[in-house]
Design brief:
There is one protein chain. The protein is an alpha+beta fold. The chain folds into 2 domains: 158 residues, Jelly Rolls (Sandwich); 102 residues, Arc Repressor Mutant, subunit A (Orthogonal Bundle), CATH 1.10.10. The protein has 11 helices and 12 strands. The longest helix is centred in the middle third of the chain and has 16 residues. It is globular. It starts with 9 loop residues before the first strand and ends with a helix.
């Protein structure tokens, strides 16, 4: 049987980041963008940090050597100068908060300690307070000074970020072009490629070669890496409160019990506990 063709995304340019560039006079700027499923925002970067959240729908953001699924109630922190790409999994309202270097240094980076956690991308729990704070920042450009209200909201945002719990919704990506193409295909549709042989054939390589590349670049196997993708996708679906049977079916499992067995093997806990 011929495998289904890969999804085709509609590519769109990023909204001109300079329009919303934060400044020392206005260190926090916010924007909102409505994006349809299967939209891909072209690669871009900027010299300031950002927080991205989806108040509705699920987005996938690829930044550096990892990709992250960001559903509602989650936020992705992206440090300055990190190139990133947005892929819309479900129709989404993408909220973005830009932070000027000064406010970044005086906020999360100051509280991160010596581990440098804030110098890397990370998915965080987005509390109701954090979501409301970002939603109440005016959608204006960075020109002109901020109001006292904006500065107060911005400092509360930084405090919420400093106390937000990290969530494992990231999946490592390889540099090898063939392996990267295979991984991107699995990310688009985790139920599409189940066996290593099928996946290797898709990129015109032998199963042995692909297995070697997974070990060399990601220090894992195809099966283990694909399971991480499935777990991340399941976690991104959890906020929708879907029945376990529906989540299992969307991920390509014949039954909820088969999906449950995979979760227990992978993380040592039941899906109900993992998904909360």
């Amino acid at each position: 049987m011929r495998a289904p063709s890969a999804k085709r995304h509609v590519s769109v340019p990023p909204m001109d980041p300079q329009v919303y560039a934060p400044t020392s006079a206005r260190p926090f700027t916010a924007k909102l963008r409505h994006l349809a499923a299967d939209t891909r925002v072209d690669p871009h970067s900027h010299p300031w940090a950002q927080i991205s959240m989806s108040s509705k729908g699920v987005i996938r953001m690829t930044a550096g050597d990892s990709t992250y699924l960001v559903p509602p109630q989650r936020a992705l922190w992206i440090p300055p100068d990190v190139e990133h790409v947005v892929t819309v999994v479900e129709d989404a309202d993408l909220q973005t908060l830009y932070l000027h270097q000064d406010s970044e240094h005086n906020g999360p980076l100051r509280t991160a300690g010596s581990d440098g956690a804030w110098r890397q991308c990370r998915v965080l729990e987005a509390s109701s307070l954090l979501q409301e704070l970002v939603a109440h920042l005016p959608l204006v450009s960075g020109n002109g000074p901020s109001t006292e209200r904006e500065r107060c909201i911005g400092h509360l945002v930084l405090d919420e970020l400093a106390h937000a719990r990290p969530v494992r919704l990231g999946v490592d990506l390889p540099r090898d072009k063939r392996l990267r193409a295979l991984c991107e295909s699995v990310l688009e549709d985790p139920a599409r490629w189940i066996t290593l042989n099928d996946a290797a054939h898709h990129v015109g390589a032998s199963a042995r070669t692909i297995a070697r590349l997974f070990r060399a670049e990601l220090d894992t196997t195809f099966v283990q890496w694909r399971q991480q993708v499935l777990l991340a996708r399941a976690l991104s679906m959890a906020p929708r409160k879907l029945p376990m049977s529906t989540i299992a079916a969307e991920l390509g499992y014949a039954s909820a019990s088969a999906f449950s067995a995979m979760v227990k093997r992978s993380v040592g806990m039941s899906p109900s506990r993992l998904l909360g």
